[in-house]
Design brief:
The structure is a homodimer.
Chain A lengths: L5 E5 L5 H4 L5 E5 L4 H10 L4 E4 L3 H5 L7 E7 L2 E2 L21 E5 L3 H7 L4 E5 L4 H10 L4 E5 L8 H15 L4 E2 L2 H13 L3 H4 L4 H8 L3 H8 L9 E4 L2 E4 L1
Parallel strand pairs in A: 1-8, 1-9, 2-7, 2-8, 3-6, 4-6
Antiparallel strand pairs in A: 4-5, 10-11
Helix pairs in contact in A: 6-7
Chain lengths: ~240, ~240
């Protein structure tokens, strides 16, 4: 095994340029909720996912057959779209073999920023599969936390810490302080992540919008998906 | 007491624009070592400090009477300058009543970025005085971690966490996840900060350069300075 594989953790997509290295694999993280939704949608049979940046772009797909169009802004579903950003929206057989077009506040931006890299998405829903996948690849890894509108967020950073620790137990080396901080935050929170996040900005935001069930599911999913969503030519497909 | 005073923590000066609010006080943090050096220099009698961005700009002051010119790049002193970025350089009576011109890798950049705000500098050397000062002001506070060349660093973030917790015990409110993370990192490290930082990038950098004594002093200074360095018209003076 090549022991020189490195992990770096980018806390905010606005800083990605500093970390960018097209020889690395980028792991896009937006656990509340875009990358959880992506995992769930694939798990329930979605064929592919097209992340788009604007509502206008998303609207172009609305009349197409076999497309589902989903939009979220500021944690809320957007009027006039089929779906929002709740994992529960996708747990039904109507999504099977459909193409999902998705635009969200942060996660789809992070995917756009990383598009010149080999890029996968990760969440607590496909955590185990992501670990196995990254160990099999012989590449450095950049953990790209989506954050919230350019700001650091706790849940993505904690997820990055959990993933980094697992990789470091499998011959990866850490290359920056943000990874050390993320691992420490993971340790501080692992006994009860939901409670730990009680003061976090996005848990409070989702709580105020009656989306606590989404939060609970995304942080403690009731199953693991073995699908790795990977970005190819602007679409997420199964790796 | 106005209970609406808010704290926000900016982990990297490159993100400062997102946090900027000229109604707030900015606290520039570069504990290893620029803001520690600034505290020490004032404590030992320096009259004022002119932070400059480039070596060329610093050189312009070299022949001036009653000026000390100090330069650091990549943790090293720069050839041809009177002083570097070690706090021990300033613990002598030659600095009394001098104007110190200082250019460093990160700290002086953070000062430049914040120059349109009311800006002070903080380190473990003047921690108590900074707390008292901020409590007396009736303003929101932005904790600006200098980081390392645009990357997150542990020591500045931990210091921000210590300061944020103290302020929150004095009627300040937190407004973002980065402050929560900083406080958590402070808690994880407070039993033995020097050991906690043993894997951090900058402690390793200073260790490799035989600057462990600088690190020890900056993290656990043997005295407290009651001086608040404040930026006025491009110069740091005593508040």
């Amino acid at each position: 095994m090549n022991t020189s594989k490195k992990i770096s953790t980018c806390f905010v997509s606005a800083l990605f340029e500093k970390y960018s290295n097209t020889e690395s694999i980028v792991v896009v993280i937006d656990v509340l909720r875009a990358t959880s939704v992506i995992s769930i949608a694939f798990h329930y049979g979605v064929k592919e996912i097209i992340p788009v940046q604007s509502l206008e772009e998303a609207k172009n797909y609305k009349s197409k057959e076999n497309f589902i169009v989903a939009a979220e802004r500021n944690a809320m579903p957007v009027d006039g779209f089929d779906y929002g950003n709740s994992p529960f929206h996708y747990m039904n057989e109507k999504v099977q073999n459909k193409t999902l077009v998705l635009t969200t506040t942060n996660g789809t931006k992070a995917l756009e920023i990383a598009k010149n890299h080999k890029t996968i998405t990760a969440s607590f829903v496909n955590f185990d599969a992501v670990v196995d996948y990254l160990i099999l690849q012989n590449k450095d890894v950049i953990l790209l936390c989506s954050g919230w509108k350019g700001f650091f967020n706790l849940e993505d950073s904690i997820f990055a810490g959990k993933l980094a620790e697992k990789l470091m137990n499998n011959a990866f080396q850490n290359s920056n302080d943000s990874t050390l901080a993320a691992i420490e935050l993971f340790h501080s929170s692992e006994a009860d992540l939901f409670s730990f996040l009680s003061n976090s900005s996005h848990r409070k935001r989702l709580k105020s919008l009656n989306m606590e069930e989404d939060t609970k599911f995304c942080l403690n999913p009731t199953f693991q998906s073995n699908i790795i969503p990977i970005l190819k030519d602007g679409k997420l497909i199964k790796a």
